[in-house]
Q: What sequence folds into this?
């Protein structure tokens, strides 16, 4: 049983127990344009909610990814190194960024559900 | 309130993403995206709206010779029907702006950067005695760029193929009087066309009817010019960089190098004789991470030797490309350097410019 939340910084986070998968939203990918590079943080890195946890670069600009919750990086999506363009094709599924361990599940309460996020970007 | 070019409605019609550029509401890209627009220009033909740039007419006696007092270019001997890239220099030899000057016969036609028209026009009025300096406000300027440009324009202007690189002429396109110059800033063959504003959308749409022609925005224009090794004013060149430091010595003709007679000539001539302390070079990051303006360039031992002034992912180069200034001792092509990107060292190499071979029709 998993639940997906969305952040104001345009990330999604799908939570199952104390682990989660995070990525950028389709809206974010559209705003960035063609993504040419993803620079992940290292596995094992711990981060606070709001920390920068990697960078995606389009032809034009570099944009930081902000952690939607506090946690630790368990795995980075290695496929994005060779094929960052996948972030434009399938940002909310195959082109996930990290699997993480969540430190404080109560932080999820400050995030939005799908309808809330839809309203944000409308 | 940002200004709109005569092509504004066309941009909106084509779903452009508009941004404020030097006070102008300009298309950064259309729905096709920067990458596709970049390839469109390299492979076929693309039209850019560059109407935000300042178009200026100079009339009077000996305009070319008088321009030589402000620019290090040989404009006194610029033949009728020819255009030449150049720049205004300051007393320190720094570049005030870069520009294209065309000898149109009964006048000179000058195109300057959008952000600097308010500097350049008074500069010319104050210093060109007996020359009338008039900005043209009622003309659009479009750049038709790419290997198919000649075919695209020939459909409307049968003589288009006869014009050679850096030549200019006044001619009607579908009955509309236009100034057509075979030049641009993408490294590709192409034309810049000055069109009366009321006809700009109609003529641009006529050009777009060609199957090989599509609109492209400022985003693609930036990656194209960077791959072509062309400087962007405000990034790669400014008041503090001399033409010699900027590797623009090729744009100063031999007579002017020898005779001087332009602002900052002593500085430029000294650098020509003994070399400049720093040089603008191409920098090719290894790997896929782009290195952008402001990134520190280090020698292999970690000492700072310069910084990047322009950097992006080059769609045709299929990898990151950059330009920047480094100490002359480290400027030789092939020199390995380190780039400090977000606190991490990325390896790179000094290279010759351009990254993508220029494709002009000489």
A:
């Amino acid at each position: 049983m998993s639940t997906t939340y969305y952040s104001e910084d345009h990330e999604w986070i799908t939570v199952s127990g104390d682990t989660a998968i995070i990525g950028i939203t389709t809206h974010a990918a559209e705003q960035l344009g063609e993504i040419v590079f993803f620079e992940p943080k290292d596995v094992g890195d711990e981060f606070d909610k709001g920390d920068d946890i990697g960078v995606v670069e389009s032809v034009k600009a570099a944009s930081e990814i902000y952690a939607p919750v506090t946690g630790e990086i368990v795995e980075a999506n290695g496929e994005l190194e060779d094929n960052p363009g996948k972030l434009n094709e399938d940002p909310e599924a195959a082109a996930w960024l990290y699997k993480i361990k969540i430190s404080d599940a109560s932080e999820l309460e400050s995030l939005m559900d799908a309808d809330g996020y839809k309203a944000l970007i409308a | 309130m940002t200004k709109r070019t005569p092509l504004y409605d066309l941009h909106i019609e084509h779903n452009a993403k508009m941004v404020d550029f030097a006070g102008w509401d300009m298309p950064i890209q259309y729905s096709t995206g920067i990458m596709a627009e970049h390839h469109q220009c390299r492979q076929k033909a693309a039209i850019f709206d560059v109407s935000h740039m300042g178009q200026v007419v100079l009339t009077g006696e000996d305009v070319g010779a008088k321009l030589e007092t402000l620019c290090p270019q040989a404009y006194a001997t610029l033949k009728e029907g020819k255009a030449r890239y150049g720049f205004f220099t300051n007393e320190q030899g720094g570049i005030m702006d870069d520009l294209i000057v065309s000898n149109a016969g009964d006048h000179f036609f000058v195109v300057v950067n959008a952000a600097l028209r308010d500097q350049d026009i008074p500069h010319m009025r104050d210093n060109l005695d007996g020359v009338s300096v008039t900005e043209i406000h009622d003309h659009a300027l479009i750049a038709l760029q790419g290997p198919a440009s000649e075919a695209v324009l020939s459909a409307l202007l049968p003589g288009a193929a006869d014009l050679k690189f850096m030549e200019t002429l006044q001619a009607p396109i579908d009955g509309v009087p236009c100034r057509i110059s075979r030049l641009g800033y993408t490294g590709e063959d192409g034309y810049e066309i000055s069109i009366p504003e009321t006809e700009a959308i109609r003529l641009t749409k006529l050009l777009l009817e060609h199957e090989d022609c599509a609109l492209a925005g400022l985003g693609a224009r930036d990656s194209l010019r960077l791959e072509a090794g062309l400087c962007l004013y405000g990034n790669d060149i400014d008041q503090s960089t001399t033409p010699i430091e900027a590797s623009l010595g090729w744009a100063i003709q031999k007579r002017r190098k020898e005779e001087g007679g332009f602002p900052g000539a002593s500085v430029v001539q000294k650098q020509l004789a003994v070399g400049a302390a720093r040089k603008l070079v191409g920098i090719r990051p290894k790997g896929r991470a782009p290195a952008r303006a402001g990134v520190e360039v280090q020698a292999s031992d970690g000492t700072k030797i310069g910084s990047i002034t322009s950097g992006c992912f080059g769609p045709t180069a299929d990898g990151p490309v950059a330009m920047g200034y480094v100490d002359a001792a480290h400027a030789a092509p092939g020199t390995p350097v380190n780039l400090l990107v977000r606190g991490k060292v990325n390896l790179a190499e000094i290279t010759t410019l351009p990254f993508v071979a220029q494709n002009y029709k000489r």
Q: What stands out?
A: Chain A has one domain: 3-121.
